[in-house]
Design a protein that fits this description.
The protein is α/β, with parallel strands linked by helices and 421 residues long. It folds into three domains: 170 residues, Aconitase, domain 3 (2-Layer Sandwich); 105 residues, no CATH class; 126 residues, Aconitase, domain 3 (2-Layer Sandwich), CATH 3.30.499. It has a five-stranded parallel beta sheet with strand order 12-11-10-13-14, with helices on both faces. Helix 3 links the parallel strand 2 and strand 3. Helix 8 runs parallel beside helix 9 and helix 9 crosses helix 15. The longest helix has 16 residues. It is globular, with a radius of gyration of 22 Å. Keywords: Iron, Lyase. InterPro entries: PMDh-L-like_dom. It comes from Mesorhizobium plurifarium. It holds the Pfam family AcnX.
């Protein structure tokens, strides 16, 4: 199937400015992906502003030099620096300067300075059925699944190109027929108390991602809506352990009023019946640290913490002093609320290190470990942190609930409370 561009799109592609470069990138990507056309989009979320090397900075600056501007609402994922000054980033020059130049280039392109991996909690919530071009795996899966907007997993630099031209390739999850579920992930065999717990959803997400890969599935057997933070945690873990861009939960997510309504055919191609034993194995797999009597840090906020999660954090700390730091990653939207309420100072006085604009697994913030110190131990309630932290930070991971993470930070040693699946 050949790509057909409109006369307007052809004219833009023929230009030698930044918009022309962006259109050529989008059009060539569409050809490679087998898309027959480009479609208009309502918004983008840009993942390409995180510094991975000088080429990314130079690419963004070339777009700026060419006079490019985003044509649709465009929020920014995390960068490599905490521009709010909440935490100390150990990125040295010249990388630090290049990272700052990159963040500035995206500002000049007209992107909103959101710097969060959870734009859907910062007011960027596209309408059900609308086409968008989002990057950042957890944001993509939340956008598709919980909001019911339509996006593929747009990679670095294609995302900003789509933003500039206001179009995206018409393929994949933009097509209604590709959003149907082909398998059922049945959790009806798990206890209601476990499904109602905070610890359940990152574990189930990690298991779901490993089981389904990049297939579209529907979760059955969930009796009550678990809340957006639980869905956020499920999707982030699923997109980390698998290539999940869309999930459905029968009776919870907007495209799946019930299992049969979202299936691609009269019967699913497979049914995965989740057992307590499968859950226990998945939960154990989120921890990489050997048995230990101490921990070095707690990290939470992947995806970024919501206002409600900060409420829980403050309630669980209950004014106590932490023995080890809690790195709490969040966006400016939540930070602003904390500052208005005077809660930032209270949390920091307890030993919480608030990390804004970025994240401890994408830029060096936590103390550096040397060979003489061995591996540090990081405790987290995030399935995504558990997946990426060992490779990105050098810390071994212990996975636990938020309540157990807080108690462990207060005591300086791991505390676990079992909730049977």
């Amino acid at each position: 199937m050949s790509l057909s561009l409109s006369p307007e799109e052809q004219a833009i592609a023929a230009r030698r400015d930044g918009a022309g470069m962006a259109m050529r990138i989008v059009a060539e990507s569409a050809r490679l992906l087998g898309a027959p056309r480009l479609i208009p989009i309502a918004s983008t979320h840009i993942d390409g502003a995180l510094y991975h090397g000088d080429s990314g900075t130079l690419f963004a600056e070339k777009l700026v030099e060419g006079g490019a501007q985003v044509a649709v609402r465009s929020t920014l994922n995390v960068g490599a620096l905490d521009l709010m000054g909440c935490s100390r980033v150990r990125l040295e020059e010249p990388q630090r300067g290049m990272a700052r130049r990159m963040m500035e280039a995206y500002r000049k392109l007209g992107c909103e300075q959101s710097w969060t991996c959870a734009p859907y909690q910062a007011g960027h919530r596209p309408a059900l059925g609308s086409d968008v071009a989002w990057g950042e795996s957890n944001a993509v899966v939340f956008c598709n699944s919980v909001l019911g907007a339509r996006t593929n997993r747009y990679g670095d630099f294609l995302d900003i190109a789509c933003a500039i031209v206001g179009r995206a390739p018409d393929y994949g999850l933009h097509r209604p027929e590709n959003r149907k579920a082909r398998l059922v992930f049945d959790v009806s065999g798990l206890s209601p108390s476990f499904l109602a717990s905070e610890i359940a959803w990152p574990v189930l997400g990690s298991l779901y991602g490993r089981e389904v890969g990049n297939a579209i599935g529907v979760v059955g057997g969930v009796a009550a809506h678990p809340g957006e933070d639980a869905l956020k945690a499920f999707g982030a873990a699923a997109a980390s352990s698998g290539a999940v861009g869309l999930f459905h939960i029968a009776g919870v997510t907007p495209e799946a009023p019930h299992v049969e309504a979202i299936l691609a055919g009269p019967e699913p191609e497979a049914v995965i019946r989740v057992t307590p034993e499968m859950v226990a194995k998945a939960r154990a797999g989120l921890s990489t640290a050997a048995a230990t009597k101490t921990i070095d840090a707690v990290a939470i906020g992947s995806p970024h913490l919501s206002n409600a999660e900060f409420d829980s954090l403050e309630r669980l700390i209950a004014g106590r002093r932490l023995a080890v730091p809690i790195y709490a990653c969040t966006g400016r939207h939540a930070l602003a609320q904390l500052e208005r309420d005077g809660r930032r100072k209270r949390l920091e006085a307890s030993g919480v290190v608030i990390v804004a604009d970025t994240c401890v697994v994408v830029t060096p913030i936590m103390p550096e470990l040397g060979p003489e110190l061995g591996n540090g131990v990081l405790m987290t309630n995030s399935g995504k942190f558990a997946h990426y932290a060992p490779g990105n930070t050098g810390y071994a991971v212990l996975y636990a609930s938020l309540a157990d993470c807080i108690e462990s930070a207060v005591l300086g040693k791991p505390v676990f409370t079992d909730i049977a699946a």
